[in-house]
Amino acid sequence: MHPAEAAGFSPAENDCARLMAALGCLVLHGFAGDVGEVLPLARALKEEGYAVECPTLEGHGLNRRALVKSTRHDWIASAEEGYKRLRMRADAIVIIGFSMGGLLAFQLAVRYPVAWLFTINTPYYYWDVRQALRNLADDFQAHFPRYVRGATRIPLASMLQFRRLLAETKAMLPDITCPYAILQGQLDDTVQAVSAEHLRNAVGSRHVTTHLFTRSGHLLLHGPEADEAIALIVNKIKSIGSPNP
């Protein structure tokens, strides 16, 4: 039995798995963040032998001045360049997007062939004020400085670019037809956890799974369930194809 069949995938997914001789993984970080957000996953995939691209999005990883000079079109172009570099090394591409990186993953998935799509804490609705208030009530000293840093380091113009990207991407979701897995931390204060349900209902794919992490906030790959989330992604990718030789 093919490993994809053993994992319970549909006949269509099984056929896709049999055709793939080599897989590469494109891992995309989030808005106003950097590759550190997704580094544990990228390292795990590389250790498994997969070709991995983990680009820093234009304007990110530096400072406010650099971020404000970049636009959503630059962020999409950065992701697209990563896809093209990876396509030179892999027969098929898996895209994993964290937070806004998931929006960029959707953008690519409607333009290019994608074997499997993963999003991690990707917004349909952003900022969960109630969860933020609960976090402050639980540990004010830990969370208040983080919220202040977030509010001061993101330029308004960049936030408007993010909002436009979100609106434009929502309109594309019915065109997402590749197999798709949603990972969502239920204690996320940056993305409303209900986004997972809305994304599931909005995409056109018939092969969608949702995985909720009850003890995790926004930085799922650095939280208490990081190992479980990484293992879930790695095991799904293993089930659909082999790493690059």
Task: Provide structural commentary.
The protein has helices at residues 3-6, 11-19, 39-47, 64-68, 72-87, 100-109, 129-138, 140-153, 156-172, 195-202, 226-240, and strands spanning 23-28, 51-53, 92-98, 116-120, 180-185, 208-213. The chain has 245 residues and is an alpha/beta fold. The longest helix is centred in the C-terminal third of the chain and has 17 residues, at 156-172. Helix 7 (129-138) crosses helix 8 (140-153). The chain contains eleven helices and six strands. Strands 2-1-3-4-5-6 form a six-stranded parallel sheet, with helices on both faces.
Task: Set out the fold topology.
Blueprint: H1 3-6, H2 11-19, E1 23-28, H3 39-47, E2 51-53, H4 64-68, H5 72-87, E3 92-98, H6 100-109, E4 116-120, H7 129-138, H8 140-153, H9 156-172, E5 180-185, H10 195-202, E6 208-213, H11 226-240
Parallel strand pairs: 1-2, 1-3, 3-4, 4-5, 5-6
